[in-house]
Amino acid sequence: MSPPGPAVSAHGLCYGYAGREVLHDVSVELEYGAVTAFAGPSGSGKSTLVELLAGVHVPLRGEVRLVGSVSLVVQRPAAPETLPLTVHDTVSMGTWGRRIARREARGVVAEMIGAVGLDGLESRSLTELSGGQRQRALLAQALASRADIVLMDEPDAGLDSARREHIHELPADQAARRGVAVGCASHDDGFVATADQVIRLEAGHATTTAT
Ligand SMILES: Nc1ncnc2c1ncn2[C@@H]1O[C@H](COP(=O)(O)OP(=O)(O)OP(=O)(O)O)[C@@H](O)[C@H]1O
Ligand SMILES: [Mg+2]
Q1: Greatest CA separation for the chain
Q2: What is the number of the ligand closest to the CA of 206?
Q3: How far is the centre of ligand 1, averaged over its atoms, from the C-alpha of 151 (Å)?
Q4: Which of 76, 32, 25 is nearest to 49 (CA)?
Q5: CA of 121 to the centre of ligand 2 (A)
Q6: Tens of pLDDT, residue by residue, the chain (211 residues)
Q7: Given Cys at both, which of 20, 23, 93, 113 links 15, Cβ 3.0 to 4.6 Å?
């Protein structure tokens, strides 16, 4: 059962790079069992906000409070592109160090590979996958961690329309079935359609709409 109150609460977040502030006084709350879409044009601050919530960056001002474990699917993965890991290994890594029994882990890994549509590619190396396939392997890894809070940055990048639609349904499915708090950043309004709330960013300023 989820604890009472929001999974993520952030207040007055400000962040910048090289002395230039790109995120201004942003406050958001993510609820358990709900999907939050982070929308807005390229450069509006979606990745910066998601990374602040996940603890990748420390805010210049403001604070982030997480109630539960968090897993992040980054927009620009660095290491996995060059490591000769298979899809199965990559997704299995998600279960390491988590509260998942070893015999259960095997089922979780197979389930998540299926959920992102990578069945049949389990023994393929990440270096031999397309960008969209690689992103889906990392998404499956994040989901396999059974984290309480899952943050995804453009998990639908590089996918054709049928695959995009499928990926757009995953967060709502995870929120409904497992009660996780999910946040998804994307240019595509596909996540907006399934979201419980939309945080729209415009030049580092956020507006929140409940749907
Ligand atoms: N490492 C960095 N160094 C300097 N500036 C950065 C860095 N990362 C992001 N920025 C700047 O911060 C602003 C917000 O970038 P961010 O990546 O958060 O936007 P985004 O909404 O995720 O864009 P996209 O949709 O293209 O992924 C932009 O002006 C960008 O140029
Ligand atoms: Mg981004």
Answers
A1: 49
A2: 1
A3: 17
A4: 25
A5: 27
A6: 677 789 999 999 999 999 899 999 999 999 999 999 999 999 999 999 999 999 999 999 999 999 999 999 988 666 556 778 999 999 999 998 777 788 888 999 999 999 999 999 999 998 898 888 888 999 999 999 989 999 999 988 888 888 888 889 989 998 999 999 999 999 888 889 999 999 999 999 999 998 8
A7: 23
Closest CA to 127 of 163, 92, 77, 166: 77
The sheet with strand 197-202 has its strands ordered as: 70-73, 149-153, 181-185, 35-39, 197-202, 205-210
Q: Whose CA is nearest to atom 31 of ligand 1?
A: 43
Residue 45 beta carbon below 6 angstroms from any ligand 1 atom: yes
Residue with tokens 């929120």: 175
pTM of the model: 0.93
